[in-house]
Amino acid sequence: MDEIKSISLKAINxxxxxxxxxxxxxxxxxxxxxxLDSLLNQDYPNFEIIVSDNCSDDDTAKIVQGYAEQGxxxxxxxKLEKWGESNWNHILTLAEGPFIALYxxxxxxxxxxxxxxxxFLLKYPDASAVFAMTQTIDGxxxxxxxGNMTLPQELRGKEIFHYAEFLNYTLxxxxxxxxxxxxxxxxxxxxxxxxxxxxxxxxxDIDLYLRMAKIGPIGVIDEPLHNYRISDQQGSAQIFYQxxxxxxxxxxxxxxxxxxxxxxxIQKESLSLYRMRRAADQIRxxxxxxxxxxxxxxxERENKPRDIKWTESIAVGSKxxxxxxxxxLGVLFLSRNAEGRQEQYVLHDPPQPYEIAENRFPxxx
Length: 365
Prior knowledge:
By secondary structure, this protein is α/β, with parallel strands linked by helices. It has helices at residues 2-11, 32-40, 60-65, 85-94, 113-123, 163-173, 186-192, 197-200, 204-215, 235-242, 248-257, 260-263, 268-291, 295-300, 308-311, 319-329, and strands at 19-25, 47-53, 72-76, 99-103, 108-109, 129-137, 143-149, 160-161, 181-185, 218-229, 313-317, 339-341, 344-348.
């Protein structure tokens, strides 16, 4: 703490910079108390906590308002949205400190979380944001075995990631920063804007971080200063089990790698691994559509007109993609051939009813 104070005295006119801890929430009565307790236990002396409640219909408001005497500020956000990022954007407008942390209402934070992040941003004044690693916990706060999230081996010991590095490592490793550990600066958020849900949905965080990286490098503290809760009550858990559309992550990266000025900084290995992961996600989506008997519905969403021959197919795409689907579906489809014309191939639905055991799809999510 002395080191932080000495750096701060030089950088912020003798005062420790104020940190606004933003906690957006909706129906968080089961966990918000434990989250607030962990935040109030921070060893950093100059912070405020604000909670933005997006129309909760449980006891969230009552619980948070019970912390008023301890300085926690409760705000009711009357604009109910299906997507949480709307409330994230709302609470960022309420933040007053020069440093802003965006934390989650169902996670736990170690006592040194805020002080370590402030120390990092003062050590690297050009950094646009800093994240920390995490230990996953269950609904009862118990650590999950093998749940310690760290940086990929190649990135160990690296603290700063400039734009080209951050983009390539995101292509290569997907999301390697932990979303509910972000601390940034008021001036950075004012410059880059907020989460663009309308365009990127659940991956709007990746887009925001890439925009931040263009202004200043992204920092990472490779230590578990945060406890990330894994629960089947989370909205993301439901999406993982039922998703039949390409992950929004790929929409973001597809956009960035399509820019002419980005092509020269993309590494071949990163792009190759990204394309493999994208193809694998397409396979998972196709399998989910097949298992949910929603193939025709999914194909109807596409703009391209198709005749009966194509709309009754299990998979439509390149020959390589269709063959991968056939391989994943297993023995029941060995006799089905991929039919194609130009770049469009199909794998037809069998003409007779059939059943498939649930355990034939262990990779489905």
